[in-house]
């Protein structure tokens, strides 16, 4: 195994574990009754921006796996299909943010700050949306019976999942925008 394949694997394991720990120990910052800022997806976005879609998907998968094997997913696991969708598929799809890696790397190398932040934003929105689309679908199918009386499962799932999507997207973007001066050192890898 070459050095170029070991380093991404180590980072996948490390950043997936950091995402899991952030999920356990941080409390979301509330922006009202429905939207909370949470930074737990940042390590998976970082992984995707550094190494691409495959590494990001592996990191998300491991994060979901850690939740399952440690029992953290127990309260959110209704059926095997629902659990698989929400803990393995949804978390893996965060890795889609890595689609922007080639253009992001070029923007960083060319020192084009606005383009860099634009690609970061596109990646974060894409990866976060892909994850929450799966949660929305699972919400309609599996969690719809928990909707308040008179509210459709579609609206209930949209409210619950879009508020999480918005909060986690905003929080992740805040982190990357704050770190914009260091993005070259954080995101460019010599493969």
TrEMBL record:
It holds the Pfam family Thia_YuaJ. The chain crosses the membrane at residues 12-29, 84-104, 116-134, 154-179. InterPro entries: Thia_Transptr_ThiT. The keyword Transmembrane helix applies. GO terms for molecular function: thiamine transmembrane transporter activity. This is Energy-coupled thiamine transporter ThiT. One of its GO terms (cellular component) is plasma membrane. The lineage of its organism: Bacteria, Bacillati, Bacillota, Bacilli, Lactobacillales. It comes from Streptococcus rubneri. Keywords: Membrane, Transmembrane, Transmembrane helix.
């Amino acid at each position: 195994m070459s050095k170029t394949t070991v380093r991404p694997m180590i980072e996948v394991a490390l950043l997936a574990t950091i995402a899991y720990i952030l999920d356990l120990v941080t409390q979301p910052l509330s922006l009202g009754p429905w939207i909370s800022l949470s930074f737990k997806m940042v390590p998976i976005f970082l992984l995707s921006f550094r190494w691409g879609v495959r590494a990001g998907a592996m990191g998300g998968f491991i994060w979901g796996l850690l939740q399952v094997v440690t029992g953290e997913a127990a309260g959110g696991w209704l059926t095997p299909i629902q659990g698989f969708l929400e803990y393995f598929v949804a978390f893996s799809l965060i890795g889609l943010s890595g689609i922007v890696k080639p253009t992001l790397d070029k923007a960083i190398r060319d020192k084009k700050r606005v383009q860099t932040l634009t690609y970061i934003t596109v990646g974060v929105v894409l990866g976060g949306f892909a994850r929450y689309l799966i949660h929305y679908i699972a919400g309609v199918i599996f969690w719809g019976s928990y909707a308040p009386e008179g509210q459709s499962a579609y609206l209930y799932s949209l409210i619950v999942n879009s508020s999480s999507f918005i909060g986690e997207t905003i929080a992740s973007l805040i982190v990357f925008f704050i770190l914009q001066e260091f993005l070259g050192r954080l995101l460019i890898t010599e493969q």
